[in-house]
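FAQ: What does the model actually see?

It sees only this:
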Amino acid sequence: MSRYILHVDLDAFYTSVEQRENPFLKGKALIIGPDPKGGKARGVVVACSYEARRKGIRSGQPISTAYRLMPDAVYARPDFELYADVSSDVMSFLRKYADKFEQASIDEAYMDVTNSCTRYGGPVELAQRIQSEMIQFLGLSCSVGIAPNKSAAKIASDMQKPNGLTFIDETKLRETLAPLPVSKISGIGSKTEQSLKEIGISTIGELARCSPKVLYDRFGKSAVWLWAIANGEEHVEVEQNFVMRSIGAEHTFEEDTRDWSIIDKELTLLTDTVYTRLVEEKMVYRTVNLKIRFKGFETYTRSKSLRFPTAQKNTILETIVALCTEFRSNPKEVRLVGVRLSGLKSKPISTIDSFTNSN
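And it is asked to produce this:
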């Protein structure tokens, strides 16, 4: 039976989140990092949009260099708490499609879908569904690589960015990887790449054909890993490691409104949504978070932490109503509201039944 591993990689994650939060930034060269202060600031570029990348901007580049290349770009400070919350939503969304799920970083995940993909018509069809729903429900795009193992799936996801989908069939794995530079293998840095070049190896195909003894003499135990990846024989399992950080839901009104009867109704629906997910995950929460965005994208977040973790549904809504108090007299129209639960912990098995009585 063929094995199907997906590597899902969010496209330009930090900047895509910022552009989702503020659509005015879409299509603009956006650079995340410290204030460039006219090109005199220290620090580095944390992330940049594809529009900025086309002008030579790169993550890790000095912010002063970025400013010199693109003084007219939009510069924004990173909001790591926001990125972490969105990442939690993305990983929770992806996990439901996988037999095994492994979060690899804030914006990457491996999914073993060998069995689950049959419910959707196959691995390609499942990947297409994930991409479509990711845009529809989370407002983000992702690139997906499909292969018989993790290393090849990661290589595949990078082949057609952004919003790309690359399937490497098991029967064509070696020939697909062969012409690629060895730097495409995750974990091969500049030093290893140079060391391989010194023995005449520049492509994955050349690495595959190299004598294991030659590799072992130069790289020790790492030679086994290198040779296996190049020959398509890496079989590392997808490791279950996901820990849910928060549960959230947001709603953008079709028309901005200052009618709090409409806003309160939506907050009630959002509370129902996050509570349902809390029950499904068999968890308790300690902190309730409110997000509210007014016309003009003026955004506020407020939160309240409870003394003890709880599973009570009514407490969510009561806390949200209280957190809204300061905003009810604001004359600006509301564009978006969001409800999020954090400080999550697993519910003890002996008390899971209390969920059904907490609403």
